[in-house]
Design goal:
The relative contact order is 0.07. The chain is mainly α and about 60 residues long. Helix content is about 75%, strand content about 0%.
């Protein structure tokens, strides 16, 4: 990931944090990362999904 993308993600992640306590942000990141790693371990094709595709898929499940 480029530095610009990394910085943009970091800014967006922090901006999306509803609760400003750092532990909540870190916990959210850990859970999200573990979930995505589990998805990829189940099916390697998921690694090629875009964020938009993952969001669309999750929205269909809700």
């Amino acid at each position: 990931m480029s530095d610009e993308k990394d910085e943009a993600f970091g800014d967006a992640f922090e901006g999306a944090t509803r609760d400003r306590y750092e532990s909540v942000s870190v916990d959210r990141a850990k859970h999200t990362c573990a979930y995505l790693e589990d998805l990829v371990s189940e099916d390697e094709d998921i690694a090629s999904f875009t964020v938009a595709e993952i969001i669309d898929h999750l929205n269909r499940r809700l």
